[in-house]
Amino acid sequence: MNVGTMLITGLETGPDDDGFWNIENGGRISIDLFSKALAGWLVLQGRDIPVSEARAAFNTTTFVIEQAATWRSTLRTSDGTLIFVRDRQFARTVIDVRELSLIVQVISAAQNAEVTVNDIALLLLLTPAQIREAVEAHAYMSLNGDNIEHEGQ
After folding, report:
1. What is the pLDDT of residues 16-48, one digit of tens each?
2. Could you name the domain of life of the organism this protein comes from (predicted)?
3. Which domains does the chain possess?
4. d(CA 55, CA 4)
């Protein structure tokens, strides 16, 4: 997968945090949205992950990963590892198509480059059909062949 310039260098935590992307004020993403996507991605991995691997998946910094992990009660970091602290099996069962679409949106947009359904399927350890369904369920994403496109890009 091609990765563009780092897109997520900070999280929105102030009064402008509306739970989404704050494009009009520097492109920061809501800490709630990012940390939810990070937790979902971690659950789908089926194991605790080195922070460096999470950094690469989300094309971001260690600081952002640690900030999100500190904010979300289901995550923590320890000795360079990102840890899911709740029942991973149960958490996986509650990731529905809406939740998956948020994870796909954050990860695919964070790459800041052309991203395919297969790229994201490999990254999330899911089938291309599941990724297509998630993209089609999201109001701000669409498919152009196998490429995932975001509104405004």
Report:
1. 676 777 655 566 788 999 999 999 999 999 999
2. Bacteria
3. 21-90 (1.10.10), 96-150 (1.10.10)
4. 14
